[in-house]
Write the structure tokens for this entry.
Amino acid sequence: MSDDLKNSSQTAEEQKGSTAPAWIFALTLLLLFAGGVYFDHHSGWFDAQVYAPYQSSDELEAYQPKSGAAAIFAEGKKMYTTTCATCHGDDGMGKPAQAPPLAGSEWVNASSFKRIEEIPQLGLGGELHVAGQDWNLQMAPMGAMLSDSDLAAVLTYIRHSWGNNASPVTDADIKAMRAAVAGHPIIGGEAGLKAIKE
Amino acid sequence: MNEIEKKYSAIDASCRVPLLVLFGVASVWLIIGLALAIIASLTFHKPELFANCPFLTYGRVQPAANDAIVYGFAIPAALGVILWIFARLSESELLLPLVPIVAANIWLVGVLVGVVAILIGDSTGFMWLEFPTAGWILIFIAFLLIAISAMATFGARRERALQPAHWFLLGALFWFPWTYGTANFFLVEWPVRGVAQAVINWWFANNLLFVWLGLVGLGVVFYLLPKISGRPLQSRYFALFAFWTWVLFTPWCGMPQGAPVPSWLPAASTVASLLTVIPLISIAIVFVSTIRGVSVQCKGGPYCSAQIGTVLFLASAVMLIITGCSHCGRLLGMTWYMPAQTYLQIFGFFSVVICGAANESLPGVLGFELPFPSFVRWQHRLFIIGSVLFLALPLAIAGIIAGIKMQNPNIPFTEITQGTLNYLRVSSAGFLIILLGSLLFAINVFAATAIWQAKLAKSIMASFGTAFEAEEVKS
Amino acid sequence: MKTGFRIFLGAFVAFGLSWCGFVLGPILQLGTLGQTTVLNSSDIYPNQRPGDATLGLQVYRSSGCAACHTTQVGQHGVVCDVVLTGAGNNPAAVNKLISTLTLTNLTKDEADAISGQISTAGGKTETHIRPIGPDIERGWGMRHSVAEDFLWDNPVQLGSIRVGPDLANVGMRYDLNWQLLHLYAPQSKVQNSMMPSFRFLFNVQKIGATPSPDALQLPAGFGPPAGEEVVPSEDAKNLAAYLVSLRADVALHDAPFTTPSAHAAGTQKK
């Protein structure tokens, strides 16, 4: 009968020379990295709402079916970001020497949208008083190329974001406005704006 | 006998009764469990067979079979072998030997209560945790009792440094009560809400069947290979690395892909399955380095069992980590491929290794050769042939075919089920072959017990006889 | 000794991490889940199952139905379909545009681009969200199963293998009577079924003065001997009620889709 202990342990010399090979550590690190990348892409980062096949909460949000007001709002936000945010800012706070703020603007928040809807259609230039500040810039008719529903969505979004709380604008309103102001020139400052009947 | 042999002979003798009781309990439950498994698989030959008998309906017999095999056979056999290994590595007689003897009987009752409860309809409904309170508490207590004896024996070791087998087996003694207690507490005693139950269930199942059976099986293999061949493990550090990576990564496997839980859970398991490649490579290299160049005549004996068991361990582990990949997991996750992997793990790997270890221990522990030495290699062969050729292979094929067909919604489901039937019928033969092997194991255990009891009786009678003679001489 | 303690500590930490991740974490995240609202509605989901269905869940557990059936639907992906809801002022132009476009099986970005094109041409569109996957197309569900679907169940019986079909939405496919007949004689309802009969859930009794109103109308070859009728026990009725209550056909935030679905909800494909 043999001595178990003597057999199961290596001699001191054998132990000194032997160790786990370096490549297995390298492989472990490599697999840890690969695993980390996989987890980053597929785990939804512990979000309780993200189930396979969705891979992130952003993706889940994108695939929420939107109906009615929510759809219009989302559409308006998208159009705003691509068309208006460069000058007016994602937060609607405007940029000095570029564009006045839309957040808290009395023109945006007016109960009637008749004035604000013509601005993106015709453009606006000259002196304007917005939220206690004087502005004197030129705005091109950035909304003229948008479809009726897109422009309506953008205006609805602007009138209901960043603390603004004014009524929505419908496609029909835009259509009527476009028919009424066809061929009109750029709006001339505050005077021109005030000339528009509310 | 020289000094060393005398020392080990005393150590082995101290393990005799605890091991005979534990192996006796284990071998009986293996037979019962396999018989239940055969009954369950008869449904696929003739579904009408038990229509009027609620106790033998598939949904009750199948979990009863699984639990009988794992809780009735696998764990008690493991504990018996652990006690023996700890005693030998400590160079100390088994301490508190009465405790495992009592515990084995408590264990027997616990499994009996649990299996009967399942058959009469009181199952908890959780896979691998079907035993209701009365059953699982008895098993839990019995495990702790046996662990106490094992730890006492471990604490008495003269050589303080730990051996590779120690790491794995101590880990196992520690991890089972933690997982078993947690899972039963949060599922049976104080149930958590909703799918959290399923998550804990999956966590436990993985930690029992993959992590725990792996810890015990590897610990036993890393003890047996050096012991029998006379060559130490190559190398100790690599084995330590394998141990660390095993306990770090494998407990995170087990969440099924596509499960109705937030995706971070299956994603974590995918990463864990990928990382499990590391301990598997390490174990493979340690194994191959240790057996290389060693010529041991084994012929189906314990050395063969340890070797083939390790190969089948690696095979079943690879089968499992494949399902960690999101695509393969969704393809195979709800098919017969999963039971095939589980059976390969339990029968092909674990049962082969643990019965090999039991057969290695018994001659020394008994003090005489096994009554039927040829049964050892026949049991070894029957286990391997039954589990690989007639159980794992056909069920895995059935699962892969069904999984592929299920991706096509135009194939009616009944057609898919019909396609698996022949493979399921072959699996009945697989259970039967393993049952024959387990009968051989049981016969050896019980015959040896009977012979030992007869010898014991004879020596008691003999000492009475000398006492009478002394009396007569006196008077 | 030092090594022994280090190994114990390391194993404790390793095991403990998995316990935190897969036991504690899910208990805190999923075990505290409450009801949610149906998408684009104020309806609460899920409602508790009716009383007999809750008892039926216990029969389901006790009979081991989860050994062969799963109750979880998977989803491989999600696609968008763009649907025209108004032709606008210039229907001819819109129709001409549409004939050049693919409107189904789009990603969200593709769908947005296409609906933008159509709306520039004057048309109005709606984007429909549609789950895809073999389970969905087989008619086993309208969307993948989520944690909220199992909120009220104890024990949760997700199942692990599909020896029989998935049952997550079986209440949308079969009615109470079908379930009772199927439990008594599965082969009478599904030819070549390998499901064992659950005859022990029923009582075969002599027909009294009048036949029992609960008696099953079984087809020829599956019925009881002449003069006898098959009556479901309480367990059978509760189990059937539970099966009929299994449906998860509402859209939720974590499982969105556009309802009502043009593709049949719960077709008879098994």
In short: The radius of gyration of chain A is 31 Å. Chain A touches chain C through 20 residues (CB under 8 Å). Residues 22-42 of chain A form the longest helix (21 residues).
